[in-house]
Specification:
The chain has 305 residues and is of the alpha/beta class. The chain contains twelve helices and nine strands. It has one domain: Rossmann fold. It is elongated, with a radius of gyration of 20 Å. Bound molecules: zinc ion.
Amino acid sequence: MSEDPPAAVPGRLTEVVAAGDVLVVSGAGMSTGSGIPDYRDRDGRLRHTRPMTAEQFRSEPLERRRYWARSHLGWDRIAAAQPNDGHHAVTALQRAGLLSGVVTQNVDGLHTAAGTSDVVDLHGRLDAVVCLDCGDRRPRLELALRLDAVNPGFRDRVGVAGGLRPDGDVRLADEVVECFRVVGCRRCDGVLKPDVVFFGEHVPTQRFRHALGRLAASRSLLVLGSSLMVGSGYRFVTAARRHGLPIVIVGLGATRGDRLADVRVHGELGAVLGRLADRLAAGLAAGAAGSHREKLWNAGVSRQV
Ligand SMILES: [Zn+2]
């Protein structure tokens, strides 16, 4: 039994996006089509036990080791993930000049990988590592190579038998964690943390204000694949409401913002956004001014996304 109708694109969704200056806020549902699982089920409940908190990570060396052992294994899959049709459609809409900004709660970097520019990574990026002591920021790949070097054969011994989480984590037995070695900052030997906002941690204030500030230059809010259960996402909806902006929510499953949405589209993001781009391109081809139409076509707003 399918709970969701086939990907339909309501006229109102097309209308709102065609008006331009759309602020996109995306969440985990955006990346499920790229093989990165969502934290929550369709009713917004957490699928797994709670992820490690920032406080646990900072204060408990054993928990930190557990995190890195699991994350090291999960990283391969995150690093290999490719943008899907949904990411490509967002890029096309941006290149067509219809977006005022793209803010994502995802830490996988897939919007940027799809060619979207100026993305605000609200919760940070998993492909970067920061030192909690001196602030040094390095590529995750470099750390992955260092961890491989001090844990020879670890990957082969353990393997990844499923259970990957959206933050690149995997489930791992205690005895496996105990034999894993972590490394410190290359500059000061301090504690390394992935440059992401952990569960229960706040988005850095300046980054959050910068992202929320984009609403002032926007005509609408388009939420893609976020359950909005995390406060940082939900605040975009309440702020848009205060500004009187239309709110459109697209994705599978219930979201915390549903009662505030002007348009609610249940469907798989890649399919819905692909059709939306088609429709915009067709509409513009039929009647819009030549220069803007050409801009859209050149930007690739067509089924090729
Ligand atoms: Zn350091």
